[in-house]
Every structure is written in C-alpha cells, then in structure tokens.
Amino acid sequence: MRKKMEGTFSKIPAVLGSREILDKCFRRGKKVEMSFHPDRVAAVRNWDIAKLKVMEKCAKETLERYLKGFPDLRILDRFHRELVSVLVDENSYRKALGSVKWARDSILRITTSTVKSLERTRNIEDFSKIMNAYFGRFSSFVDQINDDLSFLKECRKSLVKIPDIDTEVFTVVIAGFPNVGKSELVNAISTGRPEVAPYPFTTKGIYVGHMEIAGEKIQIVDTPGLLDRRLEERNKMEKQAIIALKYLADLVVFLLDPSETCGYRLDMQLSLLNDIGKFLEKEIIVVENKMDLYVSNSNNIKISAKERKNLDVLVKEIEKRVVRNG
C-alpha cells in the first residue's frame, strides 16, 4: 500500500531571508503600545513582555510555516520521494529544516527565560539591558540560519515542479513516441478535461485525466517529453525522473502508430517499447492507434483515438487489470 502524501508541493511557502524575517518581527514588536498601569515599573514590564511575545509569535509562525510547508521525506510515497531526490540534496535538505527548527526552538526558549527575568526585576533600567540582550540573541539565532533559508528558497524553485498527484489511485501511464496520439487518447477516455501538472525535465508538464472503472477512480497520465524517446539519449537526472514513474504506474499503455504518420518508423517504436518495458518493469498493454489510417495484421488492440473507435475494447482490458489489482 502506498503512503498518501501529506501536503502539496504547489503550496510550499515562499521563503524569506534572515534580514526579512528580522525586519518583520522587529517592526511588529515596535507597534506594541504601552497599556496603562498605576505602577510605572509594572507598566514598563508588561510593555516589554508584550513586545517579546509579539516578536516570538512572528518568528514562530514564519519558521513553522516552512517546517510544515516543506515535505517530510520520511513520510513521502516512493514516487514523490524519488522525484525529490532528483531535485535536491537530501542531507542538505534535512539539515536546513533541522536548522530552522533549532532557530524556532531557541527563540521560544529565550523568550520564556527573558520573560522570567523581567518578572523578577524591579529596576526599569535593568529592563532595557534585558531587552537589548534578548534582541541580540533573537537576531543571532535568525542570522545563523540565513544560509539554510537561502538553500530552502532554491529548493522551493525545484520542488514546485513536482506534481501533486494522488499515488493511492490506480494509475495508467500512457507511453509512446510524439504524435502517436497519446494526448488524444487521454482526452478520449477521460470523463472530464485532463489537468496539466508540472513535472521535472519537461516543458509541457504531464496530463492527468480520470475515469471510473468497476466503481473505482482511475488516473490516466500522459507524460510528454519523458516516455517518448530512447533512455540511452537521457542524462542521469532525466533517467531518475523517469524511474520515479515506476512507482506511480500500475499499468502502462504503450501507443504505437503503425501508419508511421507520427514521423517515426515502426521498428523505432517497437525498440522504444522494448526499452521502456525493461526500464519500468510494469505490465504493458500494447495498443495500435490510427486504425482510421492503417490496420496491421498484429494481435494488438487497435483503436482510433481521434474518431473514438474501439476505445471500449481498451477500457475493458484496463478494467481487467483494475479488478485483478483489487
């Protein structure tokens, strides 16, 4: 059973630098107004404590937004985990989030101890010394994680390219050379309009359609720019992004164009089919598209995605796998 992904990559928050966080927190602290109290010492003490609490809350909320917004690698499903490993250095990623947690915890700790110091003090002049010491330590904690924040800011640029896709749903991945009719097929068998989701190393993203088979929701995924040319032509990172599809796909539908109007010879298409079969290690249904132009003598399923012909035959074959997957 796949683990359900917690949170979404598209909602990872923008990351502020140390100076921006400090400016925001100090600005909020300065806005705190003194409340009336008949005891001057108590009035100043309460005012200073209120400033600390406002600054603490600002830092806590900001840093926790990153701790909660960036995915925890330990609970990611294998598909998303593989993609993250392609895009960011996992050790540096963990270290950066660990540093953010340290800064948050340190600020909470010194705020508590500073409040206690203020409560024990009766001298207004000592309040100023205590507050200045707090401001210095507060700033130091945030400044020390500036490099970590910068790293997370760069990570975010890559991580938002990871699709927020449900890995618990039975997923059919469509493969084949460009122009064989993959997107037409996704459109033809989807119950609604397919959505476009980002994906690393593609300019178009991936297309995700949905349908219902045997009372179960099914995802149909077209991957332009990924499963459409020989793997030997890929660099290492592109191959890793393709490997991730192994953990997304429950079934692969490989689309052939025997008419060769796609611009690729049939022998080249069959070579890619063999290549992908070895690489993904998933069950493959081979489908010949464009039967409106050409029909071969093979035993493969033959359809016309463009003219919506024989699609029921393909859907029945998919249904068999869904039921078997149970």
Strand order of the largest sheet: 2-3-4-1-5-6-7
> How big is the Rg?
28 Å
Reported by name, the CATH topology of the largest domain is Rossmann fold
Proportion of strand residues = 5-15%
| Total domain units | 2
The biggest beta sheet is recorded as: 7 strands, mixed
- Classification by helices and strands: alpha/beta
- CATH homology group of the largest domain: P-loop containing nucleotide triphosphate hydrolases
CATH architecture descriptor of the largest domain: 3-Layer(aba) Sandwich
Global morphology: elongated
Instruction: Look at the structure and give the mean pLDDT.
Output: 91
For the terminal residues, how far apart are their CA atoms? 12 Å
N-to-C SSE string, H for helix and E for strand: HHHHHHEHEEEHEHEEH
Q: What can you tell me about this protein's structure?
A:
- The chain is of the alpha/beta class and 326 residues long.
- It folds into two domains: 9-159, Up-down Bundle (Four Helix Bundle (Hemerythrin (Met), subunit A)); 170-325, Rossmann fold (3-Layer(aba) Sandwich).
- Helices cover 52% and strands 11% of the residues.
- It is built from ten helices and seven strands.
- The chain has helices spanning 18-30, 40-69, 78-87, 90-120, 124-144, 146-159, 182-189, 236-246, 266-280, 311-325; strands at residues 170-175, 195-197, 206-213, 216-222, 251-256, 284-288, 301-302.
- The chain has a seven-stranded mixed β-sheet, with helices on both faces.
- Strand 3 (206-213) and strand 4 (216-222) form a beta hairpin.
- Helix 2 (40-69) packs parallel to helix 5 (124-144).
- The protein is elongated, with a radius of gyration of 28 Å.
